[in-house]
Structure formats: structure tokens, C-alpha cells
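JOB MANIFEST
job_type = single_chain_structure
chain_count = 1
residues = 156
[input]
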Amino acid sequence: MDVLSNRRAWHYIVEVIVAAQVEKVWEIGSDWLSFPARSCVLECTEGENGLPGCVRKVTVKSRSGSPDKERRWVAEKLIHIDHSRHILFYEVVGGNIGLEPGYQAAFQVVGEGEGRTRVVWSFRFSPKQAAIEQMTPSIAARVTAYIQELETLASA
């Protein structure tokens, strides 16, 4: 797995080449209510899985695998999904982890040939949140872990 990153003020991109077919990576990564699951508990709070407007509550698991005592969570709303272009966009609409509404992210996969796929996961803070730039390394690390999980699942 090759990790590349691009950082600009309050915008960050993580790009990773994974050893798996693009269609399998997209099938797993675009399942809004099932991925990522290794480190999170996902539940639908509004709408229908895979359709714009669907809101999921993502509760972070503790190291033991159960939700932690503080029940850190974020609510994410699926804004747009394009299966032909293998891209989806979502935004934060609530939570208690320090991300306010205005945080937006995009997840895209691009075939690189020979069973390899480029995963591009970008996120940005609202101008109001630019001061919380110290969270960027933590979010980038979590995104990278999600992509590692995705590679494991897609290559199984």
C-alpha cells in the first residue's frame, strides 16, 4: 500500500494505492451503512442506505472493540453518490468529536490496472473550523486505517 498525502490550509487529501480490483473496492467502500466497520459502529438515523440524504451515526469503538465510555460519535450525511464515477460526498451534521457542521469529505476509487486501485479520500474544514487544524493528522491517520481495512476486505 502506497500512501500519498496533499495538505493545503484546511483541506487534506489521502491517496492510497491498494492491491484490489476497483469494482470490489467500490462495492465495499460505497456501502454507506457497512463501511468502515472494524473501528466503528454504524447506524442509520435518517433516510435509506446508499441514497443521498441518508444520515449515519458513526460511534467510535474502544480498543477492546466495544463503544467507549465517552461514546464519541459523529453524524454524517450522504450528499451525493455516483456509481459510474465511483465517487461519493458526505458532510458532518452533528456529533461530539470536535467536528462541526461544515466539515465535508469525498471518497473516490480509480482503477489503476492489474488489480490495483487508487483510493482518494479528501476532507476539508469550514473556514470557521480552520483553527482546529491540529485535528488533521488524527483524521488523516483514521482515514488511512479505513483504507487499510478496505484493502483487506476487498482482497479477501
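[summary]
The beta strands are 2-8, 11-18, 40-46, 55-60, 73-82, 87-95, 104-113, 116-124.
The helical segments are 22-29, 136-154.
exit_status = 0
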